[in-house]
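Blinded run. Sample ID left blank on purpose so nobody reads anything into the name before looking at the predicted structure. Input follows.
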Amino acid sequence: MGYYINVEPNVNIFVEDLNPKGSKTILFAHGWPGNHNLFEYQFNQLPKLGYRCIGMDIRGFGMSDKPWHGYDYNRLSDDVRCVIDVLQLKDITLCGHSTGGAIVIRYMARHNGHGVSKLALFAAAAPSLIQRPYFPYGLPKQDVLDIIQGTYNDRPKMLKNFGDIIFNNYVTPALSDWIFELGIQASSWATAAIANTWLGEEGLFKDLEKIYVPTLILHGLNDKVCRYPLAIAQKNGIRNSKLVPFESCGHFLFYDQQEKFNQELAQFIEDQSLYSLNKIQS
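Blinded prediction complete.
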């Protein structure tokens, strides 16, 4: 079931709602530059286990409206709040991949975890996607500047180059082409604006400290986009968290290690513990 949710005047967010009568609800926020369809291979399986799966297209991407403005993490997290409020969601597992991970982290801090009982981060672009003087673990700043310039000069080529580094394991050319098409569906201005947000946003470091719900961190050891030290920083910053490293796995871990990914997420949702001992785990 797909429908639109108004988040501000003249801006509507597209939402796909699968198995609305499911016993537990999972809300997915996708990464740049895709849309909710990136979680297709979760949507195929998790409803079979009784879960309600909701995928939202971030503004500017997929089937959502594509305004000129609103691509900072504050506004994007406010969009998440609108979706949660309109659908009257409670006790959900909120999930975010890559930039979507950064958005849901901001949501937890800015909206005090409203409606969320558990958080799951997949290769999250936090606390900083780029290297900073006090955080040398991200991408070189020039890499992001090249993405922005490539978006303005030759967006298809930029997307193709990005697609070449997101997997660690072999995928078929057809699957690679499909993911490329998801990126093409985004607006060019939103694609560039999100990349500019990576450059300027530094508040996620403090946001991590404000997360109080059980948090699962899934991250590929071979991730070339959001490098593995980001996951360690998330684990150290979120007091009630568990980090599961994925071997032989790149940035799109829900494809690279699809079966393990689905199992870990389902197990986390069913787990009743509060991870009180996870600070001694790696």
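Unblinding after everyone has recorded impressions. Strands lie at 2-8, 11-18, 24-29, 51-56, 92-97, 116-122, 215-220, 241-246.
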